[in-house]
Amino acid sequence: MAPFLFGRIPGTASKAQGEPMRITNPVEGWLQVAACSPFPDAAGETVLYPRCDIDGVVTAERIAATAVRYSAYDVPKPKWPRPGTVLPVTLDLADPTRFRIEWDLVPTERDASERLAEHLRGEQQADTPSRRPFPGIWREVEHSASSPGLVNGLTPQQMEIALAGGAAALGLVPTTAKVLTAHEVQPSSAPGGTWDIAVSVNDPNGGPGWKAVTRMSFSSSSRRESRTAVGGELPVLVDPDNRNRIIVDVARFS
Known about the structure:
Elements: E1 26-36, E2 52-60, E3 63-72, E4 86-92, E5 95-101, H1 109-121, H2 141-146, H3 156-166, E6 173-185, E7 194-201, E8 210-217, H4 221-227, E9 233-238, E10 246-248
């Protein structure tokens, strides 16, 4: 059970600013929201200091997936989470139940739309922080909205967690794969299309390799051409015990 984090208690001026949790061994991670409080004012009654309760799972590099509960009064209404949302957090490496949600990195729906538009135009902001942007991967609109099925043997949330540094918690390990063939999947909302890429995987444990198919969406045709070229090598995350679980590790592209 995680304690109150950055909480604000109504009517207490000295506590209204909140007190940051002390995290002695910080590591960046992610909180996948399983359940949360209803959006404030949903019944038409204005709530100045709504309390947000979140049940979820935190993951980070070198940390096993851990079920946690977050309860606080500090959640910005425009960023109120919903089940299935993945939030950036700072965890304590020694105790993952001690964590802080980085609300300043969570975009509102309008911010997310503007960032996506800038990304599609290839624009870069001069003041972009060095920390990895959030969300960190392309999310296929049709799949996320209409299909609960798996892609690459993973849910969309699991893929996001894996690419954000939580691969180990999902049983995925890094290796490489050689491109054999590629063909486009229709329809797709991605500018560069969504492609199924047949690859020959190098066993991360040194054993015989295997063939697999991984699906990837591209933000431009030039990126797609460079990453689906026959004979090219891709960095991938795989599950040696379930060879259908494979995803291209975009964080390892140079």
